[in-house]
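Supplementary Note 3. Input sequence used for the single-chain structure prediction.
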Amino acid sequence: MNWMLETELFGRLCVAVLIGGLIGINRFLHRKPAGLRTHALVSLGSALAVMLVFRLPGSDAQAYSRVAQGLITGIGFLGAGVILHHPQKYRVQGLTTAASIWVTAILGMACGAGMGGLALGVMALALVVINFGGNLEHLAERLLHRWREEDSAPGAEHDRRQGERRDES
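The predicted structure, written as discrete structure tokens, is reproduced below.
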């Protein structure tokens, strides 16, 4: 047994748990159905699956590809379990949590492949999107609503046609 290699591999798993745990804490603090344990385990399992494929004798690029495809698809089904449709409210809930589970799996895969630094950077980007994306969506919605109100104001069509005529001349 090579203790140096085993320590490095265990370190990769620890980084995967840390990354999944940080995203999971965010989801927990926002009272979402999948929290720290789910995200940490998804990341850990993904990292371990990738590491095992790298260690299997006779593994080739096709084996890596099949593991990646299986993980990405399988985690999609897990994420689907947190998506709820509310017909009374005409809305769907849980898409961001489902997406965070999916991203966490891929981050775990990156850790397992030895790209922990990249995974930490992408985790930071994911947390920015999760934390600030909703505010940006609300801002865009308000701006779009204001633009639509201005566009539908009395005389707006007449003003638009007058502008088009000026452009033609």
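The chain has six helices and two strands. The radius of gyration is 23 Å.
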